[in-house]
Design goal:
By secondary structure, the protein is α/β, with parallel strands linked by helices. The chain has a single domain, classed as Rossmann fold, CATH 3.40.50. Helices cover 36% and strands 20% of the residues. Strands 3-2-1-4-5-7-6 form a 7-stranded mixed sheet, sandwiched between helices.
C-alpha cells in the first residue's frame, strides 16, 4: 500500500479524540456543568462521573426508548441518573441505588434543581440486598457500581427486565486492563473480564461493546 493510500494510525484512547468528539456533541447542560464542578470539589474520585460524552449517549438512548421504569446501580453524585431521567415518560420513575451516604446530598440537591426529583427514587444501601425488593419490570438498567459484582447484578436484574429492554454496563474496558494479562490479579479487572465473558456467552440477548470512554456494554433482552 502506498503512503498516499495508507490509512492513518491512531489511538482512540488519546484524549484529543475525546476532545474532538465533544466539540461536535451538543453542549453540556449548565446544571450538569455545576454538578461536575461540585463533584470535583468535594469528591476524591471525580473520575467516576459519566461526563458529557457518555452522559449525552445515555440521554439519547433513554429519549429514544421513552422508558417508564429505569434502574440505576451506582448513583454517585447523580450525573448519569439525571441524563437517563431526561428520557422518562411523564409517568416514569428512575430508581437509583448507592451505598455511599457521603455524596448522597449532592445527588439529592441536583435532582431537585433538575425538576426531576418526583421521578427519581434514591435508595441507600447494598444493591445486592435492595434489588430483590424492586418490582420492575424495567425498560432500562444502568450498571455502574463495584466491578466484582457485575455478574451478580446482571443476573439479579435480568428477570426484572422486560423483553426488548436494555441493560447498559459501564467501564467494561476498565482502562484497558481487560486486555492486559498482568492485570489478572486485580479483583475489579477480574470482575469486568468475567462479566464481558458472561455477556458474550448469554444466548438470551443481543449485545454490543461500545468503546466510548471506558467502554459501555449494551445488552438487549430478546
Amino acid at each position: 500500500m502506498s503512503k498516499l493510500t495508507e490509512k492513518p494510525q491512531f489511538d482512540t484512547t488519546n484524549p484529543d479524540f475525546e476532545a474532538y468528539a465533544l466539540e461536535f456533541t451538543s453542549p453540556e447542560a449548565e446544571l450538569l456543568i455545576r454538578l461536575a464542578r461540585e463533584t470535583h470539589f468535594i469528591s476524591t474520585t471525580p473520575g467516576m462521573l459519566s461526563g458529557n460524552l457518555q452522559g449525552k449517549l445515555l440521554m439519547l438512548l433513554s429519549r429514544l426508548m421513552q422508558p417508564v421504569s429505569i434502574l440505576e446501580i451506582g448513583t454517585f453524585t447523580g450525573y448519569s441518573a439525571i441524563c437517563l431521567a431526561y428520557g422518562l415518560r411523564t409517568e416514569g420513575v428512575l430508581h437509583t441505588i448507592d451505598n455511599n451516604p457521603e455524596v448522597a446530598h449532592i445527588a439529592d440537591k441536583f435532582f431537585r434543581e433538575s425538576g426531576l426529583e418526583h421521578q427519581i427514587v434514591q435508595h441507600q444501601g447494598n444493591a445486592i440486598d435492595l434489588i430483590p425488593s424492586l418490582p420492575g419490570p424495567f425498560d432500562l438498567v444502568f450498571i455502574d457500581a463495584d466491578k466484582e459484582n457485575y455478574v451478580n447484578y446482571y443476573e439479579m436484574v435480568f428477570p426484572k427486565v422486560r423483553k426488548g429492554g436494555i441493560i447498559i454496563a459501564d467501564n467494561v474496558l476498565w482502562y484497558g486492563k481487560v486486555i492486559d494479562p498482568e492485570a489478572a490479579n486485580d479483583k475489579e479487572t477480574r470482575g469486568i473480564v468475567a462479566f464481558n465473558l458472561h455477556v458474550k456467552n448469554d444466548h438470551r440477548i443481543e449485545h454490543l461493546l461500545l468503546p466510548v470512554r471506558d467502554g459501555l456494554m449494551l445488552v438487549r433482552k430478546i
